[in-house]
User: Fold these one by one.
Assistant:
Number 1:
Amino acid sequence: MTRRPDETALPGMIDARQRVTGRIPYAMDVSVPGMQHARLLRSTSAHARIVRIETDRARAVPGVSAVVSGADLVAAKGLFPYFGPVFRDQPVLAIGKVRYLGEPVVAAVALDLDTAQRALDLVEVEYEELPAVFDAAAALEAGAPQVHDAPPPTGPTYADIIVHTQAGTNICNHFKLRKGDVEAGFAQADFVFEDEFTSPPIQHVTMETHNAVADVRPDSITVWASTQHPFSLQSTLAEMFGRPAAGVRVIIPTLGGGYGAKGYPKIEPLVAVLSWFARRPVRLHLTREEEFLTITKHGTSIRMKTGVLRDGTITARQSTCFFNTGAYADVGPRLIKNGGFGTGGPHRIPNVWVDSYAVYTNIVPAGAFRGYGINQAAWAYDSQLDMIARRLGMDPLALRMQNLLVDGDRLMTDEPMVDAHFRELLGTAAREIGWSADEVPVVRDGRVRGKGLSCIVKATVTPSTSTAQAKLGEDGSLYILMSSVEMGQGVKTAMAILGAERLGLPISRVRVSEPDTDLTPYDQSTGSSRSTFSMGTAVRGAVDQIRGQLFALASDELEIAEGDLEIVPGGRVAPRGAPERGMEFGELVRRSRSGNLLGQFIFRTEGGLDPETGLGIGSVHWHQAAGAAEVEVDLATGKVEVTRVHAGVYAGRIVDPVQAELQTEGNIAFGVGQALSEEMIFDHGQLQNGSLADYLIASIGDMPGEISLDVLEHLEADEIHGIGESAMPPVTAAIGNAVYRATGVRIMDLPITPEKVLRGLREQRSVR
Amino acid sequence: MTRRPDETALPGMIDARQRVTGRIPYAMDVSVPGMQHARLLRSTSAHARIVRIETDRARAVPGVSAVVSGADLVAAKGLFPYFGPVFRDQPVLAIGKVRYLGEPVVAAVALDLDTAQRALDLVEVEYEELPAVFDAAAALEAGAPQVHDAPPPTGPTYADIIVHTQAGTNICNHFKLRKGDVEAGFAQADFVFEDEFTSPPIQHVTMETHNAVADVRPDSITVWASTQHPFSLQSTLAEMFGRPAAGVRVIIPTLGGGYGAKGYPKIEPLVAVLSWFARRPVRLHLTREEEFLTITKHGTSIRMKTGVLRDGTITARQSTCFFNTGAYADVGPRLIKNGGFGTGGPHRIPNVWVDSYAVYTNIVPAGAFRGYGINQAAWAYDSQLDMIARRLGMDPLALRMQNLLVDGDRLMTDEPMVDAHFRELLGTAAREIGWSADEVPVVRDGRVRGKGLSCIVKATVTPSTSTAQAKLGEDGSLYILMSSVEMGQGVKTAMAILGAERLGLPISRVRVSEPDTDLTPYDQSTGSSRSTFSMGTAVRGAVDQIRGQLFALASDELEIAEGDLEIVPGGRVAPRGAPERGMEFGELVRRSRSGNLLGQFIFRTEGGLDPETGLGIGSVHWHQAAGAAEVEVDLATGKVEVTRVHAGVYAGRIVDPVQAELQTEGNIAFGVGQALSEEMIFDHGQLQNGSLADYLIASIGDMPGEISLDVLEHLEADEIHGIGESAMPPVTAAIGNAVYRATGVRIMDLPITPEKVLRGLREQRSVR
């Protein structure tokens, strides 16, 4: 089946040439007349009352236009200096207290960065230390230091967020899932497993660090930023400055990577406030070291209790998840839902009880991270599943296959699974990695090999909305207006392909916008692997309006019923079977004297969970992925080498095969780093490895020698699934299982460092 | 009757604050990384063969990236170096021949302007002089030098353009109007008047001179320009570089004035070509002196023969118009149509014969100018009408009133006049100026006063197309996407008002785009006083789609039939008569979960003239204006002082009273300058006064001591008429008539200089 006419099938990003010639303009390339530069002074305490901030000498430095601290924010009239996508709990600069080590306390704006730094060097801050708490579980103990004195202020937020706060505790939010009778399930079980699995905070390490330029005037606010959420930023700034959203213009050039780090406002509210104080445009561009102090993936511990029958049937699961959301909530209150119901995995489990907590502590805030809670959940359930298989004497593949959801089964949220492809994905993974139930690890040259598997299910944010407008010009070229953010994932190319194929155009005839809230229509977010599906549907809807107009025009011109016409590749409408009698789009537009044809479409998905039971519709469709890994463990050093990885993801219909594969490769890289080395190490709140000299992302040398990819396509549903994140969690879990299968060492706490493996090997020997 | 709810009626431009604080970004504020600067070497001959151009030494100057001449254009592969809105007759740099003195011959691109100039100083150009012709009538004589050797190449052009070229002559185009039996009309007349009236070429003198930045890459063309025609520029560049229009992005910031000077491409094609040669972004910003060598209003002579009955009834008119379009056609081939049928004025004339010629000569090209042919036409017919009145012994007011079109009368083009308000406009003008049929000029202190009247009708370009898109955000703010060019006329404000009033919003809640061909939908042009009407209709259509969606949403939410709902000022929909039960737009949008409501509209007007008879539909509606002037003439010096001016224009429905009045005041300023002082003086093709030191635009000191304005509103038609140009022609003609009435001196040739008046006074005396 040919999915796409001729040239539209050409792979490659529409901005490829600009990309490789260095001509993509990023936010950091924006220069505004009169623009000055900001530097930040950050907290040296993890939790302290701010006794005094002395800024007079800093303000006196020539070339300094503003020195701002929390006291200035409080004194400012008409300014609401807090932000946050769920709770408005984060001040742009610390007010009264600091809550983590590295929190911005004072900002200086000056002609250049050196001058701003000179000013900050003259600032004196006096702290009164407060007891601090860094561990999520510890933060929930009685008498634990309280990170926030009062319940966090809320504001307008997202439709899918369920809020259960508990005043007087560090519980930022609590997601509950109650399905079936979990106690009965455990009673029915032959075996009950109880384990705790942890994942550390890690950093996204986008190539482009956070940066923004803000120009705040009495009559207008304009912000250029590297963010995945233009409209969230717009409404945040409108709220902060007490202006209508239309008074705030947010322009988003291409991002140098996002991975969730740029989801929701981060530094942009501060930059806007600084522009307001400095009365001129201000740029802030974080250093790599500051990036580590801005946002992380949630460090998480998951206590997982699973009941199984002797034959491997899962009867019940209870999960207690502690997501350490750090000093400020960010999107933690929502992420715990995905991480919470995610602990069920893609398995048939009749009785489920989940308590998933976002917990405030005195470390760097945590937020969205590629995989969005599923990395942590899959690490727990798919590690435990291999432990169960071993206990039951079952093949881990067979145990999985037996429990994987098939069409009609109920998900954790009790909604029925449709279009399930877990078995196919996992089967391919097992085949590609050369899985054998009977394989016994063999030690050779002091090294031992093993293989592991994993399979996950992941929600896409539901309900959600994407909107698009389109026009077809007099030369027959298509323009798409949309607000999805290009961040290297190729959304502009995907939208160009989707628009082009509806009209049989080559993608070279399509122009796709970047977000500009003044000009481009609403999109909820660029995240949750939703763009190709959600914005793609909106774009196709808008283009279909134009397609309909083309048929109507051609019908008039050719005097042939619309039903007897068809699109001919190259941008023509012709009588069915007589392409030579067709008319070019441009000619149709010109004859219509309409200047351009216009189209628009609003695409909404529906869903939502009951706030008390967590049951309902969790996702408009479910992302499905499987991974397999082969590792070689050096028994002398404990070092794990990943020799082979397979990653599979269900795409529904593939829009761009090249980019779909590249995204999947990217997930392998992330999954390997997360499995073996990535970890932000805090000592009493002080980050120990906050630079790329010390923090170990996977390098090309860590990549598996062999990889295989399975971007699984099933055209019958004509549905597009996002594939940006789902293949990452199973890669990590499969590596853990491979190490387990190779060595018998069960690492519960990521990452799988040589030290941990070696310790496990030694404990094995001492047990023997 | 209240037209607008509360705050929407507030006067003032939406960009007023930016405007007065110097923060409007103009094209000249655009800066692109790597951008270099261009300077031009211009022809020193009015008509010559280019024998040799030596550029080697220029190219060797350090810092020079390109030196380009016509030979390079011819040698360039894939480049079509000609442009023009009707005929592609203008090379971006002279090729083979120069056709006017001041034509660009060589361009240098360099790091800075001084370097570019140093390079040009080293260029040698050798010319072989050719016989030249400067006067339009002379250019049509047998044996006249031919400005163009071959008939001009044509290309896609505008729907309303009628082309009659005559190979082997300097006739660029010929518009014919043939109505009734003009010979019979003259035979029937008691008197036949034959006179010739001339108007000189004048310059638009926009505050901002032409400037553009072009960035031409193998895969993209981006141009920032000060032009009134973004889409014309886009298609021109697409044609020149052989690319689809979608490969060309045209961005138009606010203009510092246009007045027709910036209609259609001017310097932008050259700048793009220079970027192509220099392989980097290039800016060209014309000096004021160069502006005079770029585009002018057509110098025109009109031979007018009019037959009248003794009672003042006009029986026939024959007009022969020579519009001197200079060396290149620009939009002259279309303008002669408007100038041609414009010679009938707003009068009932049963028999008409018009030959209107655009004539090539060896002077600076002429194109669109505020008034678009009607200035020249009105100067002829309304001057002659006062001569007729004097000959018949009639009151000029009465003679006009008797002949003015009323509803149902036939215009020159034989279409019926509807919604005629000429008598009302002229009556008001006469009353405001204190017109009396019996008034006799009285000499006091060597000065004599007199009054004059004039009344005009003007077409708006028909057929034409404007399109708009709109969105309503979650805060209830409205965004309008359109491609009309803001050039100080306030189109953004007008569109904001029109959009706002459909929704009962304050205009502070409306954002209006500027043109960006990648993002904003098609508009044919910003000219012909069409934007408020044409784009306004498109904007209202797009907003009405949103309005309809709001009613539907509110009907669902409030469970009240749509017909029982109404818009309440401030942005709410409420049950009729119960505003307190209404819902805010933002709330409706949020509850709809659509992110934004979207609207779009394509507005087309229909019409066209028969190419052989000039009869048909010349305009979708007709602009109507009247003027009155009082002058005081110094009999010793001949100097004319304009003491009072009244300008009246029919607006249909007024959109913005303040701006409507300011536009009318602007027309007075233009009309006075055109009447008394503006004239580009050529000597054998050499411009004698091409600088603001020598060229006399009206200054504030030349403004009448008293002015009165009549922006006439009739709401019953609910129609918006453009008011940007129509009040200008009658001001000039009324001043001429006032001088005539004061002194008896009939100036036939604009401007009315003291020398001409003095000569007339002396001739009177010698006749006496």
Number 2:
Amino acid sequence: MPLKIGLLGFGTVGSAFAEVLAASGADAAITHVFNRNVARKKDHPRATFVPANALWTERVEDVISAANVDVVIELMGGLDPAEGWLRTALAAGKHVVTANKQLIAYRGAELFALAAKNGVQLLYGAAVGGGVPMIPGIAQGLSGDRMRRVSGIVNGTCNFILSSMEGGADYGEVLKEAQAAGYAEADPSADVDGFDARAKLCILSRLALHAEIDPENVPAQTIKTVSAIDFAYAKELGCTVRQVAQAALAENGVTARVGPMLVPRTSPMAFSHGTQNMVVTSGRFGGDVVFSGHGAGGPPTAVAVMSDVRAIAENSAQVRLPSHPMQVSGDVTAPFYLRFIVADEPGIVAAIAGALAKFEVNIDSILQHRGHPDARLPFVVTTEPCSSVILEKAVAEMAKMRFMVEPPLCLQILVVDDKDTD
Amino acid sequence: MPLKIGLLGFGTVGSAFAEVLAASGADAAITHVFNRNVARKKDHPRATFVPANALWTERVEDVISAANVDVVIELMGGLDPAEGWLRTALAAGKHVVTANKQLIAYRGAELFALAAKNGVQLLYGAAVGGGVPMIPGIAQGLSGDRMRRVSGIVNGTCNFILSSMEGGADYGEVLKEAQAAGYAEADPSADVDGFDARAKLCILSRLALHAEIDPENVPAQTIKTVSAIDFAYAKELGCTVRQVAQAALAENGVTARVGPMLVPRTSPMAFSHGTQNMVVTSGRFGGDVVFSGHGAGGPPTAVAVMSDVRAIAENSAQVRLPSHPMQVSGDVTAPFYLRFIVADEPGIVAAIAGALAKFEVNIDSILQHRGHPDARLPFVVTTEPCSSVILEKAVAEMAKMRFMVEPPLCLQILVVDDKDTD
């Protein structure tokens, strides 16, 4: 008996899944498709990959409550009404495969419990990393280590924008290009302000660090304030700039941050270009492990969905170790990059150095390139490792200084320390 | 009831496993340890991680036939007698975890069938990639794609030697260094001549390409003939040199080769240094996915073993799609690097170009650096893509030319073609 699949959403990923499933040779078939405007969707070029006898419906109940559906695949996104649909499906004893990172990040713990209670699987390999098998790779392949940290480039839109800016493009132009190519939404806030990456980081934290953390408590910094000048200074510092999501076990919980960071050229993350995704896990015994590849797009994401369907078809339960609620702190001890745009006058360096000294932050280097107008003079200070929370206080004082033309930009500098394993 | 583990081998990996298990918090315990010279092994610093009531024995039957062992972990290596031991354990209904790449490469198909017949698991995550979860990552996370090719750096010893040579070290010296550090065996043939990588490639081919291929049919080229001059010419060509194992689906089976290859600086494999391992899978829908990290050493390998134990403890069966016996061909169509050491005289280029023309191989470039003695003059020809088998015929003719001081070196040049996904 083929596995009967009810598909919620026949958009980019859903239609690609239909093609991937048809090419797979797996003993599984799409029997139900839910979408708005079914008449239009049936004309989709990939609708030919859906069996002719499948039911197309605009009523979700026809799928999630159907007696003859074994697996519900949810590709609609968003917390509501998706959560209710999946609860209905799980309670009815159906396996669920979802690409919904928000739902898994915010409400995963309860949904996993519901799945376990009903003896079914809830798989979400497509929720992080698209086609890069970070979720199953960590769950099945690294469950034997004690993870200390998980870092990653998990938002393809930001990586496309920042790696294009590294090549000289302007933020506004490349955002438009990303929107035209379908990499970025009309309202790009979820991507560029870090909310998408934050949800994914919480999923990775649960899996790798066994920590349940609330996405709302993870500080997210926008990439919108990064400019061409920052790539020039970063280059001088042996770095580039990427949106990085990072969580690490600390004494009293987890430290976690998302935002643009200076990534040293010696880090594999510096080589992540375009819409690539990459995650680096750091374990006590196994050291650093890197997963990378195509993180976005219909077919790669559909591969992750199909792999989850394979796991269900083959009766392969995922290793799921218990996770525990933990406090999140955004207070990270790290070196930082401070970029100022000032109206030149005597005493600026003294004033900035004084503000840092007051908070006992040590300066590591001061960089100033020639050729900028005195009225908008950029210069950069890098710090020795310090508390991000204390540094923010110093930055708040500096922001008030009369020569500041725009608010100072403060970026964490990643440290590459692939420590020897124990 | 804790899972009861019988350990065959308390060497580098076995003793590290004892520590990793103790740190894991898993409901599993080592109850039996088999090794030669048990008295000495009990003094191993990591023997303290073995429970005091465990049985230490020099008779393997005490473990593989013990009624109260649930999982046998085999870390002895080699085809025989390991195969017989594992057959006994599987037939007795015990799960088996092994790091034995030769056994899984040569006799895996029969052993998997035996495990399935007895309703137990045979897991081998540590057999390829050490601590890098290539095996579970591909099995669970990429089962939804149609793989076209799998390439990798899967021998840490060769990668250590070649990445050190890239930094200027001499082959003989760095081999001695690797032997002193425990990265290379006293007889390094299995590593440097490619037999180790070949076995691992066959395991990856089974998993990713669903192709059962005989390791003996995969051509393996030694790295011993690579010299400092090749790194200099490779650099001029935008490449470095690494031992690469590559298998790809072809019309009538699989093409597969192992050996030193020119790796372009734009390939992630060019950034694999020291004993790192890396695998790149290329799928029809998901494109290229990269797994990399620490491929060797006790603790990383023990993480892979422990992750397999977790999977058994959590009742997580691995996705195992059917594989089929396939023909292997070493005939690869690719560009090649030919390096000659000649005693200079007029007409050499004409003679070599003539030999290539006779076999219809097109020259892409000719490189000759100054400052070498006329009696041992190195120079390099790169070809346009051609058949490796036809090129070998041309090289055999060139090898006979009277001005050749040593046999020509012929290295495949990898092409980076991360094609757009379908």
Number 3:
Amino acid sequence: MALGTGYDAQGCFLARALEVVGERWTLLILRDCFYGVRHFSDLLAHLDVSRGVLTDRLDTLVDAGVLERHPAGRSVEYLLTEAGEDLWPTVFSLSRWGERHLTADHPGRIFGHAVCGTDIEDSGLCPRCGTVPTVRELDVRPAPGRNARRREDPVAIALRTRHRMLDPLP
Amino acid sequence: MALGTGYDAQGCFLARALEVVGERWTLLILRDCFYGVRHFSDLLAHLDVSRGVLTDRLDTLVDAGVLERHPAGRSVEYLLTEAGEDLWPTVFSLSRWGERHLTADHPGRIFGHAVCGTDIEDSGLCPRCGTVPTVRELDVRPAPGRNARRREDPVAIALRTRHRMLDPLP
């Protein structure tokens, strides 16, 4: 895996998982995939990552079975596999943690259970249904507040209104 | 924060959170803190990390309000703050993901809801109580299976039997 040695002597699945998703930018790339971003050029425009790093991370994620490349006309789409979708609780919980405990000059995002219209709790639980919805069952909208880090790329613009997670973006 | 620039233009709390916990080794250090490891020397013996990196990561976590230093005799203990304990869902979900989707030559761990004795689900839900227990309510034990990465440091030995999370270790 990408990180090579270092965690090898840790007999722990957290260490194994970090060998796949622990590199810089990887979880932010996956965040965009969960929003529904599928094309290299859109990832590049929405993330402040170099072309080389993005290529390397996507290769690692494809090799690990987290993303799959699908032909799309003259281009290629990157789609989350089932294993990839299962990383949602990690991305969600870390985002929630940041929103709860860190300060920033931008608003957070609110996730709702699409089938019942109820916002989910920080634990991931839908308080109305008593279940923990998968990412396929969620929509996302920005929380109110001024965004000092407002961006004008197509993905950022599309995410200013309510969006069903995983639906193609932008 | 430790990672400095790079994620700065990402108006996203996942990026903010990764500025605190996204560096190599940080989540593995926190894993040990959740088990109840409190001393620098025990972290150093249980993790394959250099003294310098461990010092740097602990400083970052203390500065960010995730860990607190407490005097303990002639030594110092590192204890999770409330914000630190809230990182448990991230550590848990990523460990679960590794156990579910990656292969390794070591067993995983099983987490149980201490008050009712029921093992929690991958989503974190206790199926008997219908709640998502906090780390304070969990115990941990090794899953069965041969461990090709068996270690003989005091923390590893103590974790071979059922242990209440956060209780001092070793």
Number 4:
Amino acid sequence: MPEFRQDPITTRWVIIASERGRRPSDFETPPPKADNAFCPFCPGNEHTTPHEVYAVRPAGGGWDLRVIPNKFPVLQVEGDLDRAGDGLYDKMNGLGAHEVIIEGPEHKIPLAHRSVERINQVVRAYHERYVDLKRDFRFRYVLIFKNQGEAAGASLEHPHSQLIALPVVPKRVQEELAGARRHFEYKERCIFCDILRQEMREGSRVVLENEEFVVISPYAARFPFETWILPKHHESSFETLSANQSLALARILKNLLLRLDRVLNDPPFNYMLHTSPLQEGPSSYYHWHIEVIPKLTKTAGFEWGAGIYINPTPPEEATRFLREARVDREF
Amino acid sequence: MPEFRQDPITTRWVIIASERGRRPSDFETPPPKADNAFCPFCPGNEHTTPHEVYAVRPAGGGWDLRVIPNKFPVLQVEGDLDRAGDGLYDKMNGLGAHEVIIEGPEHKIPLAHRSVERINQVVRAYHERYVDLKRDFRFRYVLIFKNQGEAAGASLEHPHSQLIALPVVPKRVQEELAGARRHFEYKERCIFCDILRQEMREGSRVVLENEEFVVISPYAARFPFETWILPKHHESSFETLSANQSLALARILKNLLLRLDRVLNDPPFNYMLHTSPLQEGPSSYYHWHIEVIPKLTKTAGFEWGAGIYINPTPPEEATRFLREARVDREF
């Protein structure tokens, strides 16, 4: 049974996922998979995955998208949250949900190269699962994320995203919430809206925009070519995403990912969706967004020890490269 | 000129190291270096490095250890700190010192395989440089760290450590200081001393100890086989390290690194020394230590998005493997 444990100094939670059973020899690099290796996410192998919780099925049969519980979940969905002390320490049972969004039946078509309509199905699936998991009062946060490429932590090649529902609000989100609240107390304005206003006026870090979303490379980008996708108008939670916004998000996401592909030659990357905690109402101070981080540099002793990131590419330069990248058309 | 920029939401500083000039094509993986490639840290090539700031020279000539300014520093040592606003944002010029500790003349002998006496020279060098840089009142923190192995971020194979002196107290250290202060306000005890007491009594996470130091695998370890080296008796700063303690640290560090080598087959790793900020006197609440993290897993979207780490190896199991590892003798 996985377990949450809290570091008593920093209050950072970790998940001790012991049933994943990693002994020392398990950390050796496995040989690369053969091109014809078995893929549990490909059509025909549906019986090897847990039973799907959501799917998009076109009229002609088959499926366009499936959402399934992760076969090797880091958290377990059964039972209630049980907090306990252990001397000085605090722990909880590893309660949570861990799902995989299989973005399409085609093993070889990465998200950026699917049609806008198909990417919109993925965004809709994120939203459907988010809204559904919100009904479970044991959960306080749903983190939606994607790892593409082995260096970015993807263990299967078939294009997929993941979500993990958590009984706690994660530390990184708490930090953003605290900073946004501090700004709101001082200014009575949303700090993300303030950032967007300054960026739209200044222009040098605006990568893309459409009627609903803006992509910026943030002023204090941690990583080369880091970008954030933000709703243009104030919106604290992903929950309220409209059909229009969903389509606009699919379009800007495709445009951005194609540009990253073009400029960085198909880089490994992660993206993570940050939104208000589940059991909070709409707020004036927080603003949901997606952070996209290509995996181009290594996190080393200085970054781990300091929490300060060294970024060799100024966001203004990254913006220029991404803006100038040739894509067939805007989406 | 490098620049510090602060994320206005999380107050996280980043270093935009633009003179490192990374264009998109610079991120492609370079071919592995030939075995006979030029090494600036090897004897005979001293003229290719900046002028050394510290060295250990045995009576017979040559050198055992050199400390040099990094030829490609992420921060620049000249001038004064200049803080400025940029609309909503805050920045500072990239003031700091960035030095390299070349741990020995031998290109092929990693730290763990040097003699205790030679490892003690490395610890003494850390201490000498720490004390010297403390005299520079522009600096508020000196972070000493080591990256070993390419996956852990080492760009040169020749065994070396690094230090970066900073005009700010880094975020990760601030988090530890805040947590330690919170505990002290509540209990009037050092939280690290409390942890050590519980661990010594309980035993299942104590990897090693000698008269001055204890190695534990922390209760909420972020990474498989993560360990911390802590002074047994309360000590807030690395500054007060005695000759005895230095030798004891060299011994336990060798013992630990040899065991990691044995159990994990020469893993890439980082270690980072956390100590009280430079311009603070001794404190009752903070306790310096070294965090050692083998690089065995990939940090992916969930970790970046949540700040929650998934550790597949319980620290109790890591402890058991490390304790049972066969090393020739205790040091």
